[in-house]
């Protein structure tokens, strides 16, 4: 491990999965290093506004500990804005769906040529209250595969 690269070392991001983050689904997103990634979708009004494009990019930037989140100074308080909110999703208020108190960004980092042998799974928990951002990791491939 290189001290300046942390636990991820020289592995590359190869998959991302979100849970209760914005309007994003829980479908895993395969990331192929060196390729273009198109993020699109339909928002609550039928156009692309509010479809989750920026939320996906923001989730990845939290996962990568981008300095914009100022994680060391404020514990990632602003990342809580990524949590699912029914009003932002365009849901009818009469449904009384509550905002997510916490959500997760799961990721797999690996050498793309030998994913199974080099995989490192990272889970980032984002919460509406302190501690706002917590991370855990484990060697190997450990992702959710359940239907619900």
Keyword list:
Rossmann fold; five-stranded antiparallel β-sheet; alpha+beta; single chain; 148 residues
Largest sheet: 5 strands, antiparallel
Total domains, how many?
1
On the 0 to 100 scale, the average pLDDT is: 85
Sheet/helix structural class? alpha+beta
Q: What fold name stands as the CATH topology?
A: Rossmann fold
The strand count comes to 5
Estimated helix fraction = 10-25%
- According to CATH, the homologous superfamily is P-loop containing nucleotide triphosphate hydrolases
Under the CATH scheme, which architecture would be assigned? 3-Layer(aba) Sandwich
CA(first)-CA(last) distance? 36 Å
Helices and strands, in order, run as EEHHEHEE
What is the CA-based Rg, rounded? Answer: 16 Å
CATH level-1 class: Alpha Beta
Strand content: 15-25%
List the helices and strands and how they pair.
Blueprint lengths: L11 E8 L9 E2 L22 H11 L7 H4 L27 E9 L4 H4 L1 E8 L5 E7 L9
Antiparallel strand pairs: 1-2, 1-3, 3-4, 4-5
General description of the model:
The protein is of the alpha+beta class and 148 residues long. 13% of the residues lie in helices and 23% in strands. It contains 3 helices and 5 strands, in the order E-E-H-H-E-H-E-E. It has a 5-stranded antiparallel beta sheet. Strand 4 (120-127) and strand 5 (133-139) form a beta hairpin. The longest helix is centred in the middle third of the chain and has 11 residues, at 53-63. It is globular, with a radius of gyration of 16 Å.
């Amino acid at each position: 491990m290189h001290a300046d690269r942390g636990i991820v070392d020289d592995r590359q991001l190869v998959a991302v999965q979100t849970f209760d983050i914005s309007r994003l689904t829980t479908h895993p997103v395969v990331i192929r290093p060196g390729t273009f990634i198109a993020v699109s979708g339909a928002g609550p009004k039928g156009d692309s506004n509010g479809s989750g494009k920026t939320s996906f990019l923001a989730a990845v930037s939290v996962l990568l500990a981008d300095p914009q989140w100022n994680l060391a100074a404020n514990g990632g308080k602003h990342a809580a804005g990524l949590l699912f909110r029914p009003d932002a999703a365009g849901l009818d208020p009469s449904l009384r769906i509550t905002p997510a108190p916490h959500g997760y960004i799961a990721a797999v980092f690996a050498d793309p040529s030998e994913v199974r042998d080099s995989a490192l799974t990272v889970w980032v928990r984002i919460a509406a209250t302190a501690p706002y951002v917590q991370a855990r990791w484990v060697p190997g491939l450990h992702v959710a595969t359940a239907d619900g």
